[in-house]
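Throughout our pipeline, every protein is held as a single compact record rather than as scattered files. Such a record has a labelled line for the sequence and another for the backbone structure tokens. This encoding replaces a full spatial description with a residue-level series of whole-number codes. For reference, a complete record is included directly beneath this paragraph.
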Amino acid sequence: MSQVGESTARALLRRLAVEQSESRVPSLTAAVVRDGEVAWFGGRGRAGEGEPTLDTQYRLGSITKSMVATVVMRLRDQGLVDLLDPIGKHVEGTPFEQVTIAQLLSHTAGLTAEPPTEWWERTPGLPTDELLARLGPENSRHRPGRRFHYSNLGYGLLGELVARHRGMPWLEAVRREVLEPLGMNDTTARPRAPHASGYAVHPFADVLLAEPEHDAVSMAPAGQLWSTPGDLARWAIFLTGSGDGVLSKATLAEMREPATVADGDAWSAGYGLGLQLLRDRGRRLSGHTGSMPGFLATVWADPAEKVGVLFMANTTSGVRGTLLTDLLAILDEHEPRLPEPWEPVAADPDLLAMTGLWHWGPTPYVLRLLPERGLSLTPLRGVGRASHFVSQQDGTWLGLDGYYAGEVLRAGDGFLDLNTFIFTREPYDPAAPIPGGPGEWSA
């Protein structure tokens, strides 16, 4: 059973209640998912006639971007686009046709943050052809690939890429390929009842101002969608790696890989391919924040722990960025995850014989056998390059991480060949290929 205990639920609810009260949020919801289920949900304040529930809609804002990016990655996996393709190959008529799909996904294309229109979040949107006609060289702010520069405009272009390849509006493609398979049937382009109304809270008085809501049209892929805590929990479960049928685990892991650092010297926040990244108290989180007039939302997932957390609020600003990481810290404190029981596994005798001590020149390494014929190669003294390897059909192993990610490990007669680096049982074994030789160790 994934439900949290009573004392944990009380601590989580108190943190939520403190945030709603101290930050003066009209209504605030939060949820924790664990092992593919909603483990806790809380709601405070009023949304319409009563407290918000799992079925109350709020705006997602830029969380929409991650769903658009998911369809782009499906296009890549189907061979219809390459992440290194220039956007001009698929969406003609922009003055920056050479920026790549990967750069647009990771906000490293150098494009302006906002489109050359009126304040797009607060005014009715423009058709795509009119938006494209307004673009000029001045809408490129940085050399492509140079730095992280968040661009809503870039995701407007990615939405058009999806529409042209699928032969339907971007939203219909997202609905068919992401929302419906994940059971996110309460996620829509415009609000449906019951939904929270968006408000701005006066900075010096406890009064509200209703915020506008429009169809952003060509900019809608940057932040149009409305959803519920229940549906966003399904998205969080997907991000933890539990949502099969939409993306392969390998592609989802690729989206989580850091493509750029977003916070300079701090190096605690970054961006992958359509996913924001955050490091907090030893966790590596992926997800996205969202902000539109009258609404805030955020979702984070920790695939290593199969845990996710989210909040949704109907306020333009004010919710502290530490809310969700504090909820995860409460979960860690009250209900730390137990390690999986150790169990022995059957091992191929030939692979078992490969395990043990190997040397890269004078440096000792340990080779361990992992499940499903995988290998790990780690320095004995903890200093050096460590990598995990997955078995390939041709009898080799492919590096998964670290320095040797993507490199090939081959087993020779008494040595290991790791992309020309030779590992031997003895330091500089003279019987092995390079770096073996006739020399002897001496004082």
Q: What stands out?
A: The two ends are 64 Å apart (CA to CA). The longest helix spans residues 6-22.
